[in-house]
Amino acid sequence: ASSTMQGTAQKTKSKQGGNVSGFTKKNNKTEINTTQVNNNDVEAEAEADLVKAEADVELDELTTTAKAPAGDNNDVYIDAFPDLSSINDIKTYDNLTSLVNLDIPVPNNLNILFMGDSLTRYQYLDLVYFLSHNGTWVEPGALPSMVYQRRNHSSWNSFYDFTNSNLKPYEECDCFRTEEDIMNNMNLLNENRYFVDVERNNSVAYLQKFGAQYPFKTSWNVTDIHKNHTLVK
């Protein structure tokens, strides 16, 4: 019985020892494999970070190119606006030129929509004249006027024709207006303007919209706005 017990103990010890030894080897192997996997993960993560960093740089360059006019500094345009403290001092055009730097280069990559009444229209006309005349602003005393219908224009349709002709070939004007009692004939009033300069990648539009009681109107399909049109007179 004693011999049997000793033999069983030896076998058990031997079996346990083999299991412990095998587990250790397995652990060693597992640890080696884990280290290799970890190393691979680190390398893959580093490569992914590098790719992301390169993509961020490219995106930043593209964004900068899209935002900033070619060869120009955005500060030029920011500095052109008057300081908030001096806005109330702007009373006349001459006064304006002393407070604002109007001698600025023509920007690129503009995409602007004006929507509103006649005051908004004149802001649009002033800007697109500048964009289409190599950085020259409308002369406030010039006749006929680009930015005031009542100054030396025989009719509204004459004003549309004059302003549109001065902005060719960049502008298409979906414009018509009855000369009789306009407030009671708003359905006979339409003025939407579309300006595009492909070379400078500038796009500016004016959509006429009065108060809430008057819906927005257009005569053209949106796919046709940049095709050649003849004004109705």
Helical run tally: 5
What is the mean pLDDT? 75
How far is the first residue's CA from the last residue's CA?
126 Å
Low-confidence stretches: 1-32, 62-71
Largest sheet: 4 strands, mixed
Sequence of secondary-structure elements: HHHEHHEEE
β-strand percent reads 5-15%
Shape estimate: extended
What topology does this entry show?
Blueprint: H1 2-67, H2 74-78, H3 93-99, E1 111-116, H4 118-132, H5 156-166, E2 171-177, E3 189-197, E4 202-208
Parallel strand pairs: 1-4
Antiparallel strand pairs: 2-3, 3-4
Explain how this protein is built.
This protein has five helices and four strands; from the N terminus they run H-H-H-E-H-H-E-E-E. The protein is an alpha+beta fold and 233 residues long. A four-stranded mixed β-sheet has the order 1-4-3-2, covered by helices on one side. The longest helix is centred in the first third of the chain and has 66 residues.
Short précis:
The chain has helices at residues 2-67, 74-78, 93-99, 118-132, 156-166, and strands spanning 111-116, 171-177, 189-197, 202-208. By secondary structure, it is α+β, with helices and mostly antiparallel strands.
